[in-house]
Amino acid sequence: MSKKITFIIKRCDNPQAVAYWEEFKVPYFPKMNVVAALMEIQKNPVNAKGEATTPVAWECNCLEEVCGACTMIINGTARQACSALVDNLAQPIRLAPLTKFPLVRDLVVDRQVMFSNLRKVKAWIDIDGTYDMGPGPKISQNVQEAAYELSKCMTCGCCMEACPNVNSKSKFIGPAAIAQVDLVNSHPTGAFRKEARLEALMGEGGIADCGNAQNCAKACPKEIPLTRSIAKLNRETSAYALKKLFGK
Amino acid sequence: MTTKVIVVGGGLAGLMSAIKIAESGHKVDLFSLVPCKRSHSVCAQGGINAAVNTKGEGDSTWEHFDDTIYGGDFLANQPPVKNMIEAAPSIIYLMDRMGVTFNRTTEGFIDVRRLGGAKYSRTVFAGATTGQQLIYALDEQVRRYEDAGLVRRYEEWEFLSIVQDDEGRCRGIVVQDLKNLEVQVFPADAVIMATGGLGMIFGRSTNSTINTGSAAAGLYQQGAIYANGEFIQVHPSAIPGRDKLRLMSESIRGEGGRVWVYKDGKPWYFLEEWYPAYGNMVPRDIATRAIFKVCVDMKLGVDGENKVYLDISHLDPKEINRKLAGVVDIYEKFVGDDPRKVPMQTFPAVHYSMGGLWVDYDQMTNIPGLFAAGECEYQYHGANRLGGNSLVAAIYAGMVAGPKAIAYAEGLSKRSEDLPPSLFEAAKTREEKQNAAIFKMEGKENPYKLHQELGEWMLENVTVVRYNDRLKATDEKIQELIERYHNIGVGNGAPWGNQIVPFTRRLWPMLHLARVITLGALHRNESRGAHYKPDFPERDDENWLKTTKAGFTPDGPSFSYEPVDTAYIKPRQRRYDVAKEVTMANV
Amino acid sequence: MTNSFLWRKLHSLSGIFPIGIFLLEHMFINSLAVKGEKAFNQGVALLHSIPYLWALEVIIIFAPILFHAFYGIWVVYLTRNNVLAYSYFRNWLFYVQRVTAIITLIFVGWHVLILRFSSGEISFNVVAQALSNPAVIVLYLIGLVATFVHFANGLWSFLISWGITIGEGAQRKAAYLSTLVFVVLTVVGVNALLAFK
Fold this sequence. Notes:
The structure holds 3 protein chains of 3 kinds.
Chain A: E1 4-11, E2 20-27, H1 34-43, E3 71-74, E4 77-80, E5 93-96, E6 103-105, E7 108-109, H2 112-120, H3 141-151, H4 158-162, H5 175-185, H6 194-201, H7 215-219, H8 226-247
Parallel strand pairs in A: 1-5
Antiparallel strand pairs in A: 1-2, 3-4, 3-5, 6-7
Helix pairs in contact in A: 3-5, 5-6, 5-8, 6-8
Chain B: E1 4-8, H1 12-23, E2 27-32, E3 48-49, H2 61-71, H3 78-97, E4 112-113, E5 123-124, H4 130-147, E6 151-155, E7 157-164, E8 170-177, E9 182-187, E10 190-193, H5 214-221, E11 226-227, E12 232-239, E13 246-247, H6 251-254, E14 258-263, E15 266-268, H7 270-274, H8 284-297, E16 308-311, H9 317-335, E17 344-353, E18 356-357, E19 370-372, H10 389-410, H11 421-439, H12 447-461, H13 468-485, H14 500-523, H15 541-544, E20 546-551, E21 558-563
Parallel strand pairs in B: 1-2, 1-10, 2-6, 10-19
Antiparallel strand pairs in B: 3-5, 4-5, 7-8, 8-9, 11-18, 11-20, 12-13, 12-17, 14-15, 14-16, 16-17, 20-21
Chain C: H1 3-16, H2 19-31, H3 37-48, H4 53-77, H5 89-117, H6 124-130, H7 134-161, H8 168-195
């Protein structure tokens, strides 16, 4: 008799439909993770009552926690399903879609807003062109190491989900995009357009909407020091605002 | 008259092509199955090769070129490889200027490390998530052009087929929006495919779940030639898993990791014993076969299972954190042990396809106007790819494909916009019918189970060690699966957010590409690079120094062979137990 | 820079200056009650001798408090608390900040109503009279503690919002400071409250 793991999954056919919970029993195997369990459901879309059902829709891609695709709410908190090992989870395991993004279907949501936020804050370095112009500026190991921490952000949305100030009522862009401003501003060439990014952060739904709940840094699967970036840019935007106020 | 180019694929090659096109002031539509930042390029760990010679070891582009050709067992056409290798340092500098967080030396220069098949430190890296860092930088550059109105992104759209005019030229693509499965057609003057690898054909691999190879396979069915399909790289180290074989970067060995098993109760460093010249730094095909021999033939795997130790517990934990954190974290998360203290347990896994769409030196396939770049084409790695060369090849191919596509489009006498709309309507209708047909499938077979069966057969018989009888049996099995495909049932789900219908669609070309791989391997009676047949253990240059070219026919692939361009380096025996013989550039 | 950036910054600032400063001053005057009726009445008289007092009251007390209160209600409205899913200490404090905001708002409104606008000239006796009901004392205790929590935690948050504390270490030290501020204010405030018995 093999052990079975119970999954209770929040399902919804489309944004207009009514959501419901459906229970599944999946045969256990060692080192099983939530994605592997969902794959088993795909191969055998039968719920716990023994009724045939539609396979659960969810997103996944790399399965090693670098692409960010399989983020969902597992037992109440947002995380990647691929690295959520069944052995470490309380059972039954409850899966639900992220709540801060428009629902597509079942566990799939549309996180495009995170990419448009990156565009809003101009999180890129304005290079002259892709032709050969020799190496970039020299960078110290310390600066590289701090930047690397920030550059691991996979726009998964955990910080957005955890942030009480990111929701349908507010326009807050959330922590991820703010940390990317910190990243680009810390690059010697990126710093040339520092002020444009500060301006963007001072816009509607910008950095001032942060309420210092600090869930983001705790919820980040890559342990990015998001609250540090936010505080640092609070300093820079405040100073910039004062400079503009008195320097005119 | 405006030139319109379409890029399909949001990984390194696709993004680089798009940047090149936008930079020249032309408009580009970029289609990607997933948001570009989630493309499989993020999984590349070890680094990107370029002979920057910053360690004073006397590295040169010639050495890098020679290592690449030698490592690829002389199957690659040499001129494009040479061009790529020579461009590699400037690619590193470009990525550096884009803000990639490459590791640094104490003086602030870009740091380099060594990967397999090389005697020099020439792999530039950003922790152990180099691919992720590179793609994020390119993604941001594309976003910049998006902001400037030159790039339009279609993320979570799937490529279905190309539109061809009466002359056979590629004139656009048909795609579906994965949200609602609506089919749309986009005319273009040139199309660049950068759709990546095909690991999913082997069921489980180090690849992402999007790497089905179905886009390239579909093009093969539309008439594109598929080259060197039988050359599949099996990476020596991955964490075995039921859902995925998670890559443990070659940089682990590059930073001093050692591979061993117990023999007579004592650790046995078999790579170091068998290949004294390169030790743990032999290329991937060599290391993989050695591990197979130890586990499968000698039965010396860890706990009697197919696993060997990959050991970094003797290294300084601080250096591990600085240079390998990304991979070590993955191991800790998925296995639970700390590699800083306990040796990791790994086993080889399907990793990369050296083969792909056949392209000319301008990255154009045999279909005029259809270009290919990145892992989905065959050009840069011969019979085996060196660690650190995939990233440079993807970016370089993008840099070539973009401008060449523009040049091609500008040379057209008739633009796509001048063609009758009926041409595009017909293509759209064809794909809509195809979708409608899949929705109506009500058989007993589950497509995911069918896929699993395909993967099990391919993994068992078409990877490290190949026997003709088993290859034949595999091809027969694939044909059986092709038959059974028609008996798939997709349930009665609505189109909105439906995943089973697009998956079923992908499976069809995958099955056909699996035949190309299997039959290509069956026909090639020699051993070269990643392709190894114990019954034909030697490389046979007289008969097989040739590129395999597979063309689609309704009865299965038809094979032809094309000689390899060895313009610069004469093929010589490839061995790693002794130091590689020195060659000289014919200047 | 948009208005919302400016308003948010002013909101954060106004809680400390002038409202926080006024709170400290208020607690100082209240504490005179500990020294007896006379001392308190003298203190009040001194305050009332300030020229243009009404203008000062409007500019540095009523207007900032009204702004802080009404903009604060908007800020509270924009939040969707999630302490049950993310029960981190800081998230709880974030929630507490919003709960105490509402309590403080009601308390201050009621306090001003009964002691500033409906009791005539303020004096020790007037206050003692108002506080003679034990229920009022209890409500005052709740209101005072809520106000102090809101102020002390707001101080911690202000230091981040204005970019004064950046690193984790600095923020931790600021948390110790804000705890100290809370304790001192509570001791002083409650002591003064009980002095009116």
